[in-house]
Design goal:
The protein is an alpha/beta fold and 421 residues long. It has 14 helices and 15 strands. It has one domain: Aldolase class I (TIM Barrel). The chain has an 8-stranded parallel barrel with strand order 3-4-5-6-7-8-10-11, surrounded by 7 helices. A 3-stranded antiparallel beta sheet has the order 9-13-12, with no helix packed on it. Helix 6 links the parallel strand 6 and strand 7.
């Protein structure tokens, strides 16, 4: 029986371990996690979700404080159309996040950035252009376009000097989405360097409706592979969503996928950016604790733990500080849901908003516990300690288990001395 290490992801003459660690925001897929994946010969993702917040947290900048102060006058106003991001600060924050990760990179692997189209930031086209261009300027190895069809994203950077050499990829959940993307970008004579096919068991936002359970990753991967073969397009296909063991990964590699993208198991790693107490929530979860709901203001269904503090929380919209999901007219579905509840509950100090969640504030506070469908199996990958908690793993341990395991086996860690005592 083969293992993942028997395969290689090829970009031209470059060969990598065919494992990508997915880009979980906000700073859940940390630079440290991405650096480990790259050191081990694979690909690690960082996310540019709420990059100013990440820069403030990591590099002692004050972008959020400054924006809050600038728009303080507008806090009580339901009209958020005047709340704009400073594009120079957005560039600087991206340079901090990407540039410092790239400067620290070691090993034969690569670091990509995950860029979400749904982070519209009250100026969808211009803020996306800046995020993409700044990432390229800062030396990122590749850009994965996610959370949207990104039909115009290539065009935003077609004049950038790195447009032809940086690795550019797209996440799709159907052949039709890939066809639309390729047709829209045909005039640029620039194919994506890879296609990530994300199935219905993935974590966070899903590229499906609430009928997600009717779809199957293997079927979609086969359809994409067949389409590319028919069109004589040599684009690596990467399977994502529910790939929990090395043997799961091999099953996709054997059917023609070039690599797999994985994330859920790395949420239990020390390098993951989730707070330690939240990691324990993931580790102790059972299957019934996981749901797909529609509380995201993006309009996409989202998978998370049912006990996420974000669910039903009626926090006041804080677009003056954040506002990453404001559309081009300053609207956000959470603002509408919040205002509706305020109107229905006059004089109530603390309201509950069940329809949507303030994704910016809740993700910033690590209170929106998005997860993959296989999260309930995390407890089987590690050891339970005497106090009832679970031992966290190193990213290297998880990566190597994917790389070398066979027969759907999962290598448990050694009990660490500090935790054994």
């Amino acid at each position: 029986m083969q293992c993942v290490d028997d395969f290689r992801l090829r970009f031209g003459k470059r060969e990598l371990v065919p494992i990508l660690v997915g880009g979980m925001g906000v700073d859940i897929s940390t630079a440290e996690l991405a650096l480990e994946a790259a050191r081990l010969g694979g690909i690690g993702h960082i996310s540019d979700a709420m990059v100013q917040t990440v820069s403030d947290r990591r590099f002692n900048t004050h972008f959020v404080r400054g924006k809050t102060k600038l728009y303080k006058y507008n806090v009580a106003n339901t009209d958020k159309s005047t709340v704009q991001f400073d594009l120079g600060e957005l560039t600087e924050a991206t340079h901090n996040h990407v540039g410092r990760a790239m400067a620290a990179k070691r090993g034969d692997g690569m670091i990509f950035i995950n860029c979400m189209e749904k982070l519209t930031m009250n100026s969808p086209r211009e803020t996306l252009r800046v995020r993409l261009s700044a990432g390229l300027d800062a030396g990122i190895d590749g850009v994965t376009l996610s959370a949207g069809l990104h039909l115009g994203s290539f065009a935003l950077i077609e004049d950038h000097p790195r447009f032809r050499d940086v690795k550019l990829g797209i996440i799709v959940s159907s052949v039709r989405a890939l066809q639309l993307f390729l047709r829209k970008n045909a005039r640029l004579n620039r194919l994506p360097d890879y296609v990530i096919v994300e199935g219905p068991l993935a974590g966070g936002h899903l590229g499906f409706g609430m009928d997600w359970a009717q779809y199957d990753l293997r079927t979609i991967v086969d359809e994409v592979l067949q389409y590319l073969k028919t069109e004589q397009l040599d684009i690596p296909v990467i399977a994502a969503g529910g790939v929990f063991t090395g043997s799961d990964a091999v099953s996709f590699l054997e059917r023609g996928a070039a690599a797999v993208q994985v994330a859920t198991r790395f949420t239990a790693s020390r390098e993951c950016g989730l707070p330690a107490n939240v990691k324990q929530e993931y580790l102790k979860a059972i299957e019934d604790d996981i749901e797909v709901n529609t509380i995201s203001p993006t309009g996409y269904p989202m998978r998370m733990l049912k006990n996420s503090p974000a669910i039903g929380d009626g926090i006041r919209p804080n677009c003056e500080a954040y506002g990453y999901l404001l559309d081009g007219k300053g609207n956000c579905a959470y603002i509408t849901a919040y205002n509706n509840e305020v109107e229905k509950n006059p004089g109530v100090k603390k309201i509950s908003v069940l329809d949507k969640t303030c994704l910016c504030t809740q993700m910033r506070n690590f209170d929106c516990w998005t997860c993959g469908q296989m999260t309930y199996r995390l407890k089987d990958t590690t050891l339970r300690l005497a106090d009832g908690s679970y031992q966290l793993l190193s990213a290297a341990h998880v990566f190597h288990d994917y790389q070398f395991s066979k027969d759907h086996q999962i290598a448990l860690p050694k009990l660490e001395a500090a935790e054994a005592g």
